[in-house]
Design a protein that fits this description.
The chain has 295 residues and is an alpha+beta fold. It has helices at residues 20-29, 40-54, 94-97, 100-110, 262-270, and strands at 31-34, 64-67, 81-85, 117-127, 138-141, 155-161, 172-174, 186-187, 201-202, 212-214, 221-224, 230-232, 241-250, 277-279. The chain has 5 helices and 14 strands. Its cofactor is Fe cation; L-ascorbate.
């Protein structure tokens, strides 16, 4: 973590909800899992809204609904939609981004009590059963490949499992500590079955790097750094694997910069910057998350 704004990120001080140990785990590993972060009744709201979107009901004009590359031309339904992106104008899904148990952790990781936090990039990711071509997998990559508002240490992703996520249905895979490196060159991987649009992967990725499979229960949330190397495997089950996520930035520190590569231009199309929303968290202090709720 080389770009910390002096005086904002203090890893020796307890946060609003995180302990010093939890904050330092994130500092050292680039990710942190918080158990039971989102309750089941909220996950059901998001799932029901996703089903409505798959039926074409009340879809905001600013939202993108994406299909797996092998299913283009087929009608919208749960088994064909693999991502809903830019849901900032959807009142149900955007409630996730404003959920206080998420925002409290975000503030502890990229700011302090007075920081203005901005929701920058939103996704609901649906991983249907793989059709045999392995297009449901996501190559190992770094999210900063798509973003143009550094510094990286003041950006974090919150990624919440909407149902049980494990190795069989394509859980996240992370390389702990890789966020201490730099942004590596990315490209589309040369996969026999092809790769979905904007699913860039690290060029010459070394598969021998030590990886960790992040298995989660519904409501568990992993927070991770935009330089952390991560990806996900194919869904080899008969069920679905859904997750909802938001990338946040510290609006007091992060600033847009000129594009440096073509991939960020692609990202600029997907990121609905004009609809970024500043989220002011409640100053009321909430209980800390104990050791049983993180790893």
């Amino acid at each position: 973590m080389q770009h910390q704004q002096q005086g904002i990120l203090d890893w020796t001080k307890e946060g609003r909800v995180l302990t010093v140990e939890q904050k330092q785990f994130y500092r050292d590993n680039g990710y942190l899992v918080v158990r039971n972060c989102i309750p089941q009744h909220e996950l059901e709201r998001y799932t029901n809204r996703f089903q409505e979107l798959c039926e074409g009901r009340n879809v905001p004009t600013t939202m993108s609904i994406m299909r797996d590359m092998t299913l283009k031309g087929q009608k919208l339904e749960e088994k064909t939609v693999n991502k809903v992106q830019d849901f900032g104008d959807d009142p149900v899904l955007f409630d996730y981004c404003k959920y206080l148990t998420v925002l409290d952790v975000v503030r502890d990781l990229i700011g302090d009590e007075s920081s203005s936090i901005v929701a920058m990039h939103t996704m609901l990711i649906n991983k249907p059963p793989d059709n045999g071509k392995l297009t449901s997998r996501h190559p190992m990559h770094q999210d900063m490949e798509y973003f143009c508002f550094p510094p990286e240490d003041h950006i974090v992703c919150a990624w919440t499992a909407m149902e049980r996520v494990n190795r069989a249905n394509g859980c996240l895979v992370v390389v702990p500590g890789s966020h201490k490196g730099k942004l590596l060159p990315h490209t589309y991987p040369d996969w026999e079955g092809g790769v979905n649009k904007a699913y860039h992967g690290i060029q010459n990725y070394d598969p021998s790097m030590p990886r960790l499979h992040v298995e989660m229960e519904a409501g568990d949330t992993v927070f991770f750094h935009p330089i952390l190397i991560h990806g996900s495997g194919a869904n080899k089950t008969a069920g679905f694997r859904k997750a909802i996520s938001c990338h946040y930035a510290n609006d007091d520190v992060c600033r847009y910069k000129a594009f440096e590569n073509q991939n960020q231009i692609v990202c600029h199309f997907h990121l609905n910057f004009s609809n970024s929303v500043i989220l002011e968290g409640n100053i009321e202090r909430r209980p800390r998350y104990g050791k049983d709720r993180f790893e």
